[in-house]
From TrEMBL:
<protein>
    <recommendedName>
        <fullName>DUF4287 domain-containing protein</fullName>
    </recommendedName>
</protein>
<dbReference type="InterPro" id="IPR025629">
    <property type="entry name" value="DUF4287"/>
</dbReference>
<dbReference type="Pfam" id="PF14117">
    <property type="entry name" value="DUF4287"/>
</dbReference>
């Protein structure tokens, strides 16, 4: 039986984020690391206000970032 190799969850947005904003995902992870300890929606607001990301893309990046931190 074949497995589904397509990214699931927030990572499914990564190709469109990289294409639309011209930066690799690691760039955005660095932006979020530099933002310091903030709540989910505070980080989403930062990406939207300071970097012009749309809500869905910002939310996907923050969800992935916070999940990786544990």
């Amino acid at each position: 039986m074949a497995t589904n190799d397509k990214p699931q969850g927030p990572a499914s947005y990564f190709p469109s984020i990289e294409k639309r904003y011209g930066q690799p995902i690691e760039h955005w992870m660095g932006v979020l690391r530099q933002a310091g300890p903030r709540k989910h929606m505070e980080l989403v607001a930062l990406l939207k206000a300071d970097h012009g990301l749309g809500h869905g893309h910002a939310n996907a990046l923050v969800a992935w970032f916070l999940a990786q931190r544990g």
